[in-house]
Amino acid sequence: MIVYGSSLSPFVRKVLAFGAEKGIALENRPLGPGAEDPEFMEASPFRKIPALRDGDFSVCDSSAIVHYLEAKFPEPALIPAAPEARARTIWYEEFADTILMGCGAKMFFNRIVSPRFFGRPGDLGVADKAEREELPPILDYLEKVAPGPDAYLVGDGLTLADIAVASPFANLSHLDIPADPERHPRLAAYVERILGRPSFAPWLEKERTLLARTAA
To answer: Whole-model pTM?
Structure first.
């Protein structure tokens, strides 16, 4: 199976970590949005990342991909079957994709992606406003729901909820905006624990290397 897209994208990273937690062998091809690779374009007609190819089947969008992987490889289950637990898991994924990363993207794109990869200045006013006004209430919410040590957002084990919520914090860490352990101690400890898992850690190391190189 091939996953198209750079793990710098929290959505690509989510898919790669999800696959790793399931023990699925995923080949990553780190294309960027808008890439013109023919196989990628077939899998993602609008050239958005991530996209997945599994033999003759292809699909794009991180949520579609993880649900495909869950259906094809049901064990270990990362999307609960019980109605309440499944609903909460899908909520956290949607929250992470739209609210958390909707804010984070304004900072990450304008401060890193635009200047380093597109060669043009980002809108720092937009980034600064997102950090100043949008991010704090999001972090305050997560501090309220963050589980304690050895616990998870939904049920007794790791689920898609944890993977989806933790992934954008890698982008925030690349921006030197970690969760503040004084203001958000539960959240800071939780994020550190999830991003330290073997499903995440190797990708974060590769990303740090890439960003260090592009900063030179």
So the answer is: 0.95
